[in-house]
Specification:
heterodimer; A: alpha+beta; 5-stranded antiparallel beta sheet; 4 helices; B: alpha/beta; Rossmann fold; 8-stranded mixed beta sheet; 8 strands; globular
Chain lengths: 133, 309
């Protein structure tokens, strides 16, 4: 499985944020929200700055947390690839990296959420990054 | 509003020869089919299908002298597809249906419900019982206790988890593609003949939004958003005396026949059935004509009982 690591302050010069994935309800299962709060110290950081992770492709991803009045923070999450400003991104690389980020997230949340179940679900639905196709 | 030109590509329109009609409901544009004359039969699909699911059920109903109305739920088929998850609440979908029924001023409705068409249609029915004449339910539920299938980590909870849901069900069309295929009996014919129709109607990640947001309304515990609505629904149905038919697929592994058909029977002891047919969750794909004939026979018995009074 590709490694994903948290990056503190990536160089954003001459880059753009390329949209990759959005989640409106990160607290649908509260342990997912708790994971992101822990991983990026969101109780202190709040909306101050995105979280950043780097995937083994070398691309950095910005995790932009969304707040919604009346709901615990974060209520949602958007993931963007940090790419060269005027260059297209390789969709297959993006997909593989997102799958790796999902694995990193599930590993960080822990039981009863397991990488085995995520992998099995990905294979059942024939996701190439999960080892199918 | 009736339009004469089908918005469907020719290869789908050839299999779905019904005039498209549209109504403004609850602020959204809803597509529906309205064919035939007589007492109305309203056919309600669920996730991720559209009216097309009922294509083999419609002809026997029309031939029996019924008026058949088939709405596409908002977000599906030819109806408007909102791109915000907040547009998809259980109560909102029930209100959408209520708006359509009131605009068409339908009365003496025979309501036929499948999947999310169950909680949606039955919520409408229990809130507007004076407009109803009969109910038919198949592969659905109407109480707070979830199906065992929906409590399993693999695959159901995992595929609807935060971020995993939009990735699998949105980017990789897990339900409208592989999921539908896994939930029919005649898989090879479905794959070559029918699956492309469903995939064409939800062609991209944005359009597939309700395929991961709507299932999250299934109450998995008493703190869930829709728990109280399902509790209300269960209580209302237990007191409901409308003529009811239960139809189920023998091979259903989502709402398994051994648990869910008897549960409806327990809740509504006067209901007839369960009439068992070949089918998994999307039983209309394997037994559409037979289901149509069962509903026709059921409604003729309802007619006869009413005539005898």
């Amino acid at each position: 499985m590709s490694a994903v690591t948290i990056v503190v302050e990536p160089d954003l010069a001459a880059t753009r944020l390329e949209f990759a994935l959005a989640e409106d309800r990160v607290g649908h299962y509260p342990e997912f929200r708790d994971f992101f709060v822990r991983a990026f110290d969101l109780d202190k950081v709040g909306l101050g700055r995105p979280g950043y992770v780097r995937a083994s492709s070398g691309l950095t991803y910005a995790l932009i947390f969304i707040g919604r009045s009346g709901e615990a923070f974060p209520s949602g999450l958007e993931i963007y690839a940090v790419v060269e400003a005027l260059e297209p991104v390789d969709g297959d690389v993006l997909d593989t990296d997102i799958w790796a980020i999902l694995n990193w997230m599930i590993a960080g949340i822990g039981p009863p959420w397991t990488l085995d179940d995520l992998g099995a679900t990905g294979r059942l639905y024939q996701v190439p990054a999960a080892g199918c196709g | 509003m009736l339009t004469t030109e089908s918005p469907l590509p020719d290869w789908i329109a050839a299999r779905w020869p019904y005039a498209p009609r549209y109504a403004g409901v609850n602020g959204w544009r809803m597509h529906y089919v309205d064919e035939g004359e007589g007492d109305p039969v309203v056919l309600l699909h669920g996730n991720p299908t559209w009216g097309y699911l009922w294509r083999e059920v419609i002809p026997p109903l029309l031939a029996s002298g019924r008026r058949v109305i088939v709405p596409d739920m908002i977000g599906f088929g030819l109806s408007e597809k909102p791109t915000r998850e907040q547009a998809h609440s259980l109560d909102g979908h029930a209100a959408n249906l209520t708006a359509l029924v009131r605009q068409l001023d339908l009365e003496d409705i025979a309501l036929v419900c499948h999947d999310w068409g169950g909680p949606t249609g039955l919520s409408f029915a229990m809130n507007n019982p004076e407009r109803l004449r009969a109910l038919t339910v198949m592969s659905t539920w109407a109480w707070p206790t979830p199906a065992e299938f929906h409590t399993r980590m693999f695959p159901w909870r995992m595929m609807h988890a935060p971020l995993v849901g939009p990735y699998l069900l949105g980017d990789h069309k897990a339900l409208v593609g592989r999921g539908l295929y896994l939930s029919v009996v005649g898989r090879e014919r479905f794959r070559s003949h029918t699956q492309p129709v469903y995939e064409a109607m939800l062609p991209d990640t944005a359009s597939r939004l309700p395929t991961w947001t709507w299932p999250r309304w299934i109450p998995l515990d008493e703190n869930a958003r829709a728990h109280d609505r399902f509790l209300w629904l269960e209580e209302k149905l237990a007191a409901c005396k409308l003529p009811t038919a239960i139809i189920w697929g023998r091979e259903d592994d989502v709402f398994d026949a051994a648990t869910f058909a008897p549960k409806f029977k327990q809740l509504m002891p006067h209901a007839e059935g369960p009439h068992m047919v070949t089918g998994r969750h999307f039983l209309q794909e394997d037994s559409g004509s037979e289901i149509g004939a069962i509903i026709v026979d059921f409604l003729e018995r309802v007619d006869a009982k009413e005539a005898a009074r």
